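Course assignment 3, question 2. Fill in each field.
Student: A.L.
Task: Predict the tertiary structure for the chain below.
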Amino acid sequence: MRLTILGGGGFRVPLVYGALLADRGEGRVTEVVLHDLDAGRLHTVARVLAEQASAVGDAPRVTATTDLDEALRGADFVFSAIRVGGLEGRADDERVALAEGVLGQETVGAGGVAYGLRTVPVAVDIARRVARLAPDAWVINFTNPAGLVTEAMSRHLGDRVIGICDSPVGLGRRIARVLGADPKEAWIDYVGLNHLGWVRGLRVAGRDELPRLLADPGLLGSFEEGRLFGADWLRSLGAVPNEYLHYYYFNRETVRAYQEAEKTRGAFLRDQQARFYEEAGRADVSALGAWDRTRDEREATYMAENRETAGAGEREADDLSGGYEKVALALMRGIARDERTTLILNVRNQGTLSVLDPDAVIEVPCLVDANGAHPVAVAPLPGHATGLVCSVKAVEREVLAAAESGSRTTAVKAFALHPLVDSVEVARRLVEGYAAVHPGLAYLK
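Answer field:
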């Protein structure tokens, strides 16, 4: 079975390959094709993967190419983890927004809109190529903003594109652990959009254990989201939000913390990864060792400003292990081997949430089998969550319309309608600011 990884020179590719090395079942991936526009990064990541595979018999064969069509031909699965504009673009997203006093985070607020505007045209081109060159392939999208990009690609690939994210997985695992339950045995009632969802229940043997968590201040203070949001707010919501909702519920505090930080997250990762690729590209250095050291630092500093604002302390050791690669592997196994499983995924709504149309991509538990991912029926969201989901989905639709039409006016509308952008004039300045620094937005007229 052949897996093509788009963004194959990306830093987190070794996580995916490591999961493949541990998969010894029948019908596993036997060939991995790395595609990236940067041949140097491809070479460095290939070195890391070679070290990973050195002690593993019958490891998946790895090839690398900068030719997209070549990479796609013959693929059974396509894993998309591209970053249009690179980390320099992410740093610019943050800088331009913060200068206007609004959030520039990668997927949330003005930064997320900017990232979406320059990523959607590229993702659509990839989707069209997949449809032409590998029509039987399944696309697993991890490119951010994951829900928005998955919806853009679904207009050309239908249900053969599925978005994944590790945030709901990590949240469910933490809640189950605190409650003394095995995450594999728990049913997580999670619903929303990517980076905008809530755990409303956690059932073990048919019993919802979430009320027990919400009623116990000690338990609430023992895991990351409990410390991040605070026990009182979680009890008010009657649910546990995805960590990214901290940007909405504590926006002023977060923007101030990001403005006062020595570096934004994007700038930190840009500089950190530049050091990694330089070090790991040297013949006298273990590329895998350099990758391990860099990854440990990356994971430990994740959402550091948010945790500092909330006084949440350091991340726990169990939360440093990532998880999206395990979701990707479980999804591929479910489809390729008909190993039926339940995963929280980004898929087309298909009537699951009545407030959104059938084609809107949402993030919910799905039953996975050889025919793909099928969203499970969920109870309606409460009013406050419904309002936020509908508002952000409306913004996503404006981003898609702007990317399709090239209309700068529509792009301004996308920024202005976002709940975390507080002025039409700010929205206009954001579009001007982003267009000035991002060549990928030259299509906006």
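Instructor remarks: The two ends are 43 Å apart (CA to CA). The CA atoms of residues 192 and 437 lie 32 Å apart.
Grade: pending
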